[in-house]
Amino acid sequence: MENTELLCEIPTSVTPRADIINDLLAQLDNEQDSDIRAEIIRKLGEYPEPQVIKKLWDLRNNLENESDDFVQYEIKLSLHKVTNHPSINIDFFLDNLEVFQSKDNNSQAPKVLIDADLIEEFLLRNQTTLNSEATRVMGLVLEGKINPYIGEMGLIKIWHNIKNLKSQEYANLLIIELLSKINVGQVNLKDIDLEKYPNANLKTAIQVEIARKYSLAGIITIRDREFIASGYPFVGSPSLFLQFLGKDTSPASIERTLKNLGKAAMEHEKEKLNQLVENEPQQNLFFEDNLLLFQGWKIENFEILCANNNLTAATVILCNTKTQKRYTESAFKKGLSDALFTAFNEALAHLVEVKHTLKSIYVANLTSGQKGYVTVKAVVEYDGKEVITIHTHENILKAYFFAYVKAMIAVYAPKEYHPDIHRTEELTYLHKIGERDFRGLNFSQVNLMDGEANLSDAKLMGCNFSQANLSRVNLTNADLTGADLSHANLSKANLTGANLSKANLTGANLTDVKLDENNLTLLDGTILTNTIMPEINIEISGESRLEKVGQLLKHIDPKSQSRILAVHSMTDSIWWDNPLGQKFWEVNEELIKREISIQRVFILPEAPTPKHLQVIQEQLNSGIEVACICQEKAKDIEGYRWDDTNLLISENLSVPRNSFTARRIMHGQTETHYISYQTRVVETDKSIFNALWEKSEKLSTQANIQEQLANLNT
What is the pLDDT of residues 217-239, one digit of tens each? Predict the structure, then answer.
């Protein structure tokens, strides 16, 4: 043990930190004695430095080489200490890539950029169609048949998402694992000519630049549609890549498949588009024939004249259908749409006080060729609110003008505005070119039944998706506040992080809707404030159940006249002092501050302890209505046994379909749990709670609790 004592006496004030670490690492490599090795490893745990973390990680991955259990314990403990240190984050790893990246990467396999979103699918989701495809692609990576790369921004995104879902330590360990297997591609934004990517977002442009810088064979991503505007041909989704790869997974076959992905993707898109156009009837013909405006006025005629002096002349004629009175206005501008809109505004000024502002207007090609249809989206601001309209036409000028005219009707005569029922391609193609805002539009007949359909981050507030087919659609982080999703098919859709506040989900098909790594429906990462919920019942157990219940309670709208009815079988008096109990108590306190009433029945043992009384007193003092009943009495109330049951009912008096109940029931050594929005279950649990409340002893803060509970058993 002499060496151990010498080790502990290294004067840190004299020897530089780097020298200390190098000495410890050198001693560890040469030391065979288990006690001394354990001491060195414990000492290393005090230094959260790159070479220390890498060494501890390597030791952890080779625990079978350490015969001493105590040494194995010290390896795990020290790795926990260094990776849990506040300074160890994604910036730390990016600054020390040379330490954590594999130095012996001599792979001859095709170099491929694997999108971070695909890696997240592989790491976090349960078995779904999308996940199984991601798993097969990552399987090729782990088998060494693909030499993988990831962009720096993607790695940062993964770290932050894992940190938020799990913990910083978990995220750090995962990044070390990824860095040992995947190369990080880095580009300087200053070196990217963004003019080459006018229609692609920055994230996509960076990934293309990485692929070109490192001479990668291609990119595999679940966001393949976003790359269409980048001009980079070697991009494909996991499903498309695997479909064309087939059974031959040799490196040569992989490289050949990547080279053909661009052509394959274009043919795939063309085939789907042709089917959509063939099956969809042409709309808006009635509007075009009549060009009705409002208040009995219509657009009788409009025309454009382009001259050689760079000016465009536009004329608009409005006619009253009853009196035949007309207003004719003209304008001269450099741009076609500018001239036409100005002339129309001047004619419109005869009917209303023009106060709107045109915020933006976008066009998306729907079909190729000289007769291809185009869709235009107009965004107009009026009185602090935005109005969005869409129009599709084979004449691009009419598409612009009619979208604008519809916006004017919606602004100045909202009662006369009849929104179009928009087609599938109008939604998907506008989203593809980067448009995300579709609030208030009617998509009740869209059919997006496609594993690659992407509406992530879209603003869909107040949209009508009733009876729409959204199966497998990516709605990650979409804002669906107030949307009508009644009777929509949302099976296998990705709603992670979506905002469903005040949405209507009545009758919606939620089969296999994926929201988190536990495959839970509409509970995690999704805002459900006053959502009209479907009749769903979800079995969910343990700590996860309480976390989801807590999340749902946090989203209760104080204006909804909600109340909480709860039963807690307090055989374990210290539960409320555990981290889980404390976290749940914080949710209770937050509800009380928001003036949401809580009634709670405690089921107590025959001889309550001072700790039981302390918990009850604290909840009474906070404003919770408390009642207590003896465990023996609770064994048979209304023919039901309550002594082993925990229950919480969130009753929403404003939106009854938003009410839910959560239960945990003990059956000997087994438990059953659920969270239910089924009306029948909620009403049954509420009825049983009321019976239990009536038979329980009501407590008061004005009297001694011990005295109130004295006759609990009688």
Answer: 889 988 877 776 677 778 888 88
